[in-house]
């Protein structure tokens, strides 16, 4: 971007872009991280002077928007993030007054000022918390995003090509990000509902970046509600596009996919485990334990990695894999005894004791009962005789052949 | 403002002081309004170099005085001692300030003698004084703050009602101070309600009274250990009577209060909260709660039990679950578990009927922690399960499995009813 030394020519160019509806160029000038020339900065540093010039040279509401944005930039670059956040908020509010009358050309500007608001809010809150003050910037930002989202979804233009609806997914993704950061995940459902209700172009027609992020969040939300089958679909789609692009994003998705796959009996391959150190440290031990049926090892790994897993929200899912571990152990017992159709419950009890799980006979029966119910074992238990009667064929079916519980 | 009272009148004033102190104490206006700082400003302005020291010393004295009140106001009998203490603290004030202080108190006392007109006059004077001493007050609060009221500001209400009992009415507008009970009265109310609950066990009455007690605390924005105590007691009573909605309200408030740093039985209520999340089966909340537990908290027997219950429910380990139900820790967790025991029993029966050909009733009763065989038969009867007899009662796994499977699917589809209380 050309460096301007005086404010008036800068504002004149902006006015030109507004009149020619050149959203991309205009957005390129409204980034808080742009380093303007010292002359321009000096002019911005004088609030009244800058405001006057903006008022004189720009149409209504654009003047407030641009003025606030420049002040935010000034504060941000003079290391005053809290003030910067405040000004950016004003910028966004002023833009919201314009927005209902604008159409698709203005979306790049919409993107940049909102994402700058997110960025500044996070920084400002961090600083406020470090100084032991109340940090409400991100919450206010969330409200602003919500308003912007509504403007995007509710656009009564007849021609879809020019509609603001093309900005919906961007701002929806931004909202998801904000809600997750604020830990008010339940609000995400409202966004999903609004998108379902809004009559919008298909997701596939939007830029791939927006699609990917949206699939990731949809998958994550379904995962948190334990709807693993649906979650897997979304996460795989997201993974397809992140693979090879961003390692950080890849890892995030892998950490979600591994537990889902584990639950359905698919153990991560050696290559996958070695793909990244974080995967190996968290899942390596557990995979070994499941393969060999060593429950003690499994429990130990679970305890060691509890913090990591809780961070990824996958602790509860991995816990369910414990049953797979036990199944493996029982299968081994079955093979060792020579694939009998009638097995004593005490054999299983002994096996469990061997791996360090000392339980009463009734509890062993309970574990066997759960497996029969889930379909891991085909047979039935007789409590009176304390034996497990197994089916002659395929007593321990492959886990992958059983639908996800 | 106030002029210095001549020295010879001091004795007369002190006599009057003893009479009015009883009134002043019950009004508790000294609590939230810093009369000392408000009376002094002019004086401080005169001796500009003494400003800092006088305000600070007065602030400290006011603090001391207030703490003493906090300790003594909860018991009737110590009224006399507090009178003496009040006089003592008066003596501690520097000579020249003493007259002002006594003048102040006399003025206040005179106001309390009338009824409504006095109330009105008092309110008007209050507003005037507030306006005059604005800056000093803010300074004081920035330094010390009122220990009982979080988020103190000019609109914080101080109640004047003296009744111990009060019915609960949902507020539709700003409350009238005459209907709101101040903190000292509320403390007495709590003691009174505790005795009444032990004697009568009338839940509707107690719940109503506690709700109004909580309301008075909320409108006066009083958040301290007393508030924690009130919510804890109400929560326990609600649990005992199975009122989950009311319990949940108390639990949310307690969570906030503990976060603000007020001491109470945090571990006990953490255990209850975890069990409540097991009841609602909300994985996000469970995840969040477990991630916030410290290793020390995990050793607490109540929390340990709740964690094991959660684990058993998550793994579907009904045997372990009912063992934990039969041997609860020394708290009120069992009342919470009562709410999801039926659901777990159906889940267990679904699993058992799939895996066993026949299930003898004694076995089922034992596994599912029924009191005895009859209770078990009653429960199965309610589920419309067919019970057979052959040397003892039993149910057929194959025949009854579809029934329990269907019931379980109905439960999971419907979701958990949180009784309209978020």
From TrEMBL, chain A:
Residues 212-395 form the PCI domain. InterPro entries: Csn12-like, PCI_dom, WH-like_DNA-bd_sf. PROSITE patterns: PCI. GO terms for cellular component: transcription export complex 2. Coiled coil: none annotated. One of its GO terms (molecular function) is RNA binding. Pfam families: PCI. One of its GO terms (biological process) is post-transcriptional tethering of RNA polymerase II gene DNA at nuclear periphery. PANTHER family: PCI DOMAIN-CONTAINING PROTEIN 2 (PTHR12732:SF0), UNCHARACTERIZED PROTEASOME COMPONENT REGION PCI-CONTAINING (PTHR12732). Belongs to the CSN12 family. This is PCI domain-containing protein. It comes from Piromyces finnis. The lineage of its organism: Eukaryota, Fungi, Fungi incertae sedis, Chytridiomycota, Chytridiomycota incertae sedis.
From TrEMBL, chain B:
It holds the Pfam family SAC3_GANP. GO terms for cellular component: nucleus. Residues 243-413 form the PCI domain. It comes from the Eukaryota. InterPro entries: PCI_dom, SAC3/GANP/THP3, SAC3/GANP/THP3_conserved. This is PCI domain-containing protein. It comes from Piromyces finnis.
């Amino acid at each position: 971007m050309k460096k301007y030394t005086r404010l008036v020519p800068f504002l004149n160019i902006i006015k030109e872009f507004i009149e020619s509806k050149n959203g991309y160029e205009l957005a390129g000038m409204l980034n808080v991280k742009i380093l303007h020339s010292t002359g321009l900065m000096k002019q911005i540093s004088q609030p009244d002077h800058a405001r006057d010039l903006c008022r004189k040279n720009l149409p209504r509401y654009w003047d407030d928007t641009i003025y606030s944005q420049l002040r935010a930039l000034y504060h941000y670059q003079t290391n005053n993030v809290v003030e910067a956040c405040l000004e950016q908020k004003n910028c966004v509010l002023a833009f919201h007054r314009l927005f209902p009358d604008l159409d698709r050309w203005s979306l790049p500007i919409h993107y940049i000022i909102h994402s700058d608001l997110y960025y500044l809010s996070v920084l400002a809150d961090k600083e406020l918390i470090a100084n032991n003050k109340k940090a409400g910037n991100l919450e206010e930002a969330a409200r602003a995003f919500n308003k912007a989202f509504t403007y995007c979804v509710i656009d009564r233009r007849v021609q879809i090509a020019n509609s603001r609806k093309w900005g919906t997914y961007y701002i929806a993704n931004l909202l998801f990000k904000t809600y997750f950061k604020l830990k008010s995940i339940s609000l995400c459902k409202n966004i999903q509902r609004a998108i379902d209700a809004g009559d919008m172009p298909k997701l596939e027609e939007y830029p791939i970046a927006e699609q990917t992020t949206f699939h990731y969040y949809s998958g994550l939300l379904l995962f948190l509600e334990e709807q693993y089958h649906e979650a897997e679909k979304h996460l795989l789609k997201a993974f397809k596009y992140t693979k090879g692009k961003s390692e950080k994003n890849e890892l995030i998705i892998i950490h979600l996919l591994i537990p889902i796959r584990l639950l359905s009996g698919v153990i991560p391959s050696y290559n996958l485990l070695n793909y990244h150190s974080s995967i190996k440290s968290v899942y390596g031990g557990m995979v070994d334990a499941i393969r060999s049926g060593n429950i003690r090892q499994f429990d130990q790994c679970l305890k060691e990695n509890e913090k990591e897993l809780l961070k990824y929200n996958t602790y509860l899912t991995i816990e369910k894999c414990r049953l797979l571990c036990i199944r493996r152990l029982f299968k081994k017992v079955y093979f060792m005894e020579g694939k009998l159709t009638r097995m004593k419950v005490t054999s299983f009890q002994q096996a469990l004791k061997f791996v360090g799980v000392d339980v009463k006979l009734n509890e062993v029966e309970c574990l066997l009962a759960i497996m029969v119910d889930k379909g891991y074992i085909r047979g039935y238990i007789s409590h009176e005789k304390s034996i497990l009667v197994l089916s002659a064929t395929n007593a321990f079916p492959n886990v992958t052949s059983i639908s996800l519980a | 403002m106030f002029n210095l009272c001549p020295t010879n009148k001091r004795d007369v004033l002190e006599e009057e002081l003893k009479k009015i102190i009883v009134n002043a104490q019950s009004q508790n206006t000294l609590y939230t309004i810093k009369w000392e700082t408000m009376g002094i400003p002019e004086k401080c302005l005169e001796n500009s170099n003494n400003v800092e020291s006088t305000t600070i010393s007065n602030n400290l004295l006011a603090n001391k005085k207030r703490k003493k009140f906090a300790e003594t106001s909860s018991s009737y009998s110590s009224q006399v001692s507090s009178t003496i203490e009040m006089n003592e603290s008066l003596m501690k004030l520097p000579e020249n300030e003493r007259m002002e202080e006594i003048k102040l108190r006399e003025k206040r006392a005179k106001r309390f003698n009338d009824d409504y007109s006095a109330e009105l006059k008092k309110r008007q004077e209050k507003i005037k004084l507030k306006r005059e001493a604005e800056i000093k007050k803010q300074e004081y609060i920035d330094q010390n703050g009122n220990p009982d009221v979080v988020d103190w500001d000019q609109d914080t209400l101080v109640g004047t009602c003296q009744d111990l009992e009060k019915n609960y009415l949902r507020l539709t507008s700003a409350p009238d101070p005459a209907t709101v009970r101040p903190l000292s009265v509320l403390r007495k109310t709590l003691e009174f309600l505790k005795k009444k609950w032990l004697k009568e066990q009338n839940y509707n009455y107690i719940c109503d009274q506690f709700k109004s007690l909580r309301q008075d605390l909320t409108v006066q924005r009083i958040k301290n250990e007393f508030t924690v105590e009130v919510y804890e007691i109400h929560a326990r009573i609600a649990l005992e009577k199975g009122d989950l909605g009311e319990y949940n309200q108390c639990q949310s408030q307690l969570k906030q209060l503990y976060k603000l740093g007020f001491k109470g039985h945090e571990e006990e209520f953490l255990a209850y909260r975890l069990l409540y999340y097991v009841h609602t089966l909300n994985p996000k909340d469970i995840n969040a709660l477990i991630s916030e537990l410290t290793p020390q908290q995990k050793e607490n027997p109540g929390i340990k039990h709740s964690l094991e219950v959660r684990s058993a429910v998550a793994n579907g380990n009904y045997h372990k679950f009912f063992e934990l139900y039969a041997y609860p820790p020394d708290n009120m967790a069992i009342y919470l578990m009562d709410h999801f025991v039926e659901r777990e029993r159906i889940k267990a029966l679904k699993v058992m009927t799939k895996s066993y050909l026949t299930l003898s009733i004694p076995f089922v009763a034992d596994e599912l922690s029924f009191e005895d065989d009859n209770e078990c038969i009653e429960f199965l009867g309610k589920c419309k399960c067919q019970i057979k007899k052959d040397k003892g009662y039993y149910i057929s796994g194959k025949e009854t499995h579809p029934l329990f499977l269907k019931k379980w699917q109905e439960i999971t589809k419907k979701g958990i009813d949180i009784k309209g209380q978020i």
